[in-house]
Amino acid sequence: MAEHFVPENLPTHIQHFINGKFVDSVKGATFDVLDPVTNQNYATAAAGQKEDIDAAVAAAREAFVNGPWPKMKPRERARILNKIADAVEAQEGRLAEMETFDTGLPITQAKGQALRAAENFRFFADLIVAQFDDAMKVPGSQINYVNRKPIGVAGLITPWNTPFMLESWKLAPALATGNTVVLKPAEFTPLSASLWADIFTEAGVPAGVFNLVNGLGEEAGDALVKHPDVPLISFTGETTTGKTIFRNAAENLKGMSMELGGKSPCVIFADADLDAALDSALFGVFSLNGERCTAGSRILVERPVYDQFCERFAARAKTIVVGDPHDPKTQVGALVHPEHFKKVASYVEIGKTEGRLLAGGGRPEGLEEGNYIAPTVFADVKPDARIFQEEIFGPVVAITPFDTEAEALELANNTKYGLAAYIWTQDLTRAHNFAQNTEAGMVWLNSHNVRDLRTPFGGVKSSGLGHEGGYRSIDFYTDQQAVHITL
Ligand code: NAD
């Protein structure tokens, strides 16, 4: 294998950050962290247990009850959030290097993720300054108004696919609204989360407001979910994990936001701008190594353009550059972890019995080590196939033909998931009606997966509960108390 880039000053040990200090686990437990290109351990990380979660929650609770953060004027808090955004932007190159090293995401795409993280902080800084609350009057008899209040300690549990950006998506609104937090990042990728500690401290976030506990989901994550002093859990991850967390949080009746898995359809009608649809469909399933919750991993194509589409799509998939994530030419890097690699590789084998293999089908030539899978395309996939129904979370796509709009809709909705959908047609009446009838939290019509931070983000069916984004995040992280006055 060619020489592999290793960022400078890579830590060999990753700690928790509790009450303004980097610390190890009370019981000294650690777990190994792997580099996805060599699959060698490059660091150990403190493995949080119940005692560590207890300490982090106690610090966050103290900072909430007695600290300045929840009482700060929105403008004051917004200034600190903007400093965080500046710091993230200023370190964008370094953050991207670290993220790429830890996750295997292509470096060019990791850079975009760091910038999005900064944007999340700026966006919520703006929102809290512009926020006003309702007042309702009954002339001459009553006035009612709303007190919006931070809730307390928010537990934030995040996945490994775009760790730093997804953490920012929860940290920014939770902190902007005056809560204090305990973050439990994914155990496959703890590196970039540890960078938040210095960024927050330097920007002026008081000790105890941001706490980080690394560790396994079943230990650290579980303790956070069950902690009685944590009234909110914002979770992003797999649907099965979401169900477990939902059950475990029930005892304490917590506020829950659940961003879960997906198997999103990309529906291409014969009248579509086929060049644009092709570009978008390739990006939709192969960017971020296919490890994208909103990946368009089922492509449904109207029969008259089906053969042409399959041929062109497969030809393009074969030209995608797979390789070292740090190489700027790389378009698909290494999957995050050997366990995940095994899962994706097993779906590739299943796919060979369920569809017609048009591209990929295993390791790319010349990459015998590391978690590399060639962009893999299966055509003629039936709706009852496992590769049509199950989230693979890798560079693997199922293509299926349809003959009528009704059939396309039935196929689009024929999974337990309902996160995103992409629709390509020149017929705008059909586009809007189809969007309306698609069981998906987010629909992109003739367009790419581009986010507007004001819009709701979330899924339906097994893809999630609740929405975040814009004022919906503010609603999730605040209580709205009604005050009634008789005039
Ligand atoms: P995962 O569910 O395995 O883990 C997510 C987090 O939950 C990790 O931090 C893990 O340690 C923790 N966890 C695991 N078991 C737990 C438990 N019993 N109690 C508390 N915490 C626990 O998910 P993953 O493999 O890290 O991420 C991939 C999944 O995330 C995919 O299904 C993907 O679609 C989904 N995802 C969804 C969105 C979205 O916005 N809808 C975004 C990104 C990823």
TrEMBL record:
The keyword Mitochondrion does not apply. Pfam families: Aldedh. The active site is at residue 259. It comes from the Bacteria. InterPro entries: Ald_DH/histidinol_DH, Ald_DH_C, Ald_DH_CS_CYS, Ald_DH_CS_GLU, Ald_DH_N, Aldehyde_DH_dom, DH_HpaE. Keywords: NAD, Oxidoreductase. Residues 23-483 form the Aldehyde dehydrogenase domain. PANTHER family: 2-AMINOMUCONIC SEMIALDEHYDE DEHYDROGENASE. Belongs to the aldehyde dehydrogenase family. NCBIfam families: HpaE. This is 5-carboxymethyl-2-hydroxymuconate semialdehyde dehydrogenase. It comes from Arthrobacter gengyunqii. The lineage of its organism: Bacteria, Bacillati, Actinomycetota, Actinomycetes, Micrococcales. The gene is hpaE.
